[in-house]
Amino acid sequence: MNPIPVEALCVGQPAPFRDGELSAFAKTKVDGPVRITREGLKGDTQADRRNHGGQHMAVHLYPRSHRAFWLQKIGAEPLLDEPGAFGTNLAVDGLAEADVMLGDRFRLGSALLEISQPRMPCWKIEHHFGHKGMVAAIIASARCGWYFRVIEEGEAQADDILERVEAQRTDWTVAEVFAELANPKSATTLERVKAMADCELLSPVWRGGARQKAEAMGG
Q: Fewest CB atoms within 10 Å of the CB: 94, 157, 159, 197?
C-alpha cells in the first residue's frame, strides 16, 4: 500500500444532539499540528464515555472513499462533503476496511497507531444525517470504519502521510472482523470466531462479543 496523505484531522466537543442529549459525534477539522495521545487527539472528547473513547478507541477513521456509496444511498447530502461528518478523526481517501487488517500499524507524523477494532454503528449516524437505514446499510456492506489505539504518542497535521509500517499481524481484515462478528447474515466458522476471541490485538469489547458468538455457535 502506498503512503496516503491525511486530508484533515478532526475533533469534536460535546454539544446538544437529540432531546438535549450531548454528543461529540460531529467533528470539525483542525488547523495546524495536533497532539495525539493515548486517549486520542487533543481537543477531541466524548460525551458518552461508557460506550466511546478510551485507549482502544482513541482515533477513529471512516474512509472518505465511501462517499460514492452514500451518494447512491442518501443522495447529495451536503454533510457528505464535510471531512468529519461520520465522526472520524482522520479524513483519508484511498483506504478501506478490506485493505487493512486488525493489528496493522501506521505511522502518522510522529505518532504510531495500531488498528484495534471496527467501529460499530449506532443511531447517532442516522440522526446526524437525517436518514433512516444507514446503520443497516453499514452492517450489510461492512463500511464501518475502524479505531486505532496509540502505541507511540506524537503530533500530526493535515497533509501528513499515513504510512503502514507493520502488516499481517492477524489473519483478518477489518471488513472480515466486522462482518463475521456484527452481521448475523455473514458466513464464518466457530474456529475463526474463537480465534478472534483469543486475539489480544482485538479490543476487549469486541473480544467479548466474539466469545458470546462462539458460545452461541456451540463453542
A: 159
Number of domains making up the chain: 1
Q: Decide: helix, strand or coil at residue 43.
A: coil
- The residue whose grid cell reads 455457535 is 217
Render pLDDT for 69-125 as a digit per residue (tens, 0 to 9).
Answer: 999 999 999 999 999 999 999 999 999 999 999 999 999 999 999 999 999 999 999
Q: Which domain holds residue 41?
A: 4-169
How far is residue 161's CA from residue 44's CA, in Å, rounded to a whole number? Answer: 21
Q: What pLDDT was estimated at residue 50? A: 64
Cβ proximity of 8 and 160 under 8 Å: no
- State the Cα–Cα distance between residues 53 and 24, nearest whole angstrom: 11
Phi, psi of 93, rounded to the nearest 5 degrees: -110, 155
**194 inside domain:** no
Whether 81 maps to a domain, the answer reads: yes
Give the cell for residue 188: 464464518
The domain spanning residue 156 has which CATH number?
2.40.33.20
Radius of gyration of the chain (CA): 17
Residue 20 domain-assigned? yes
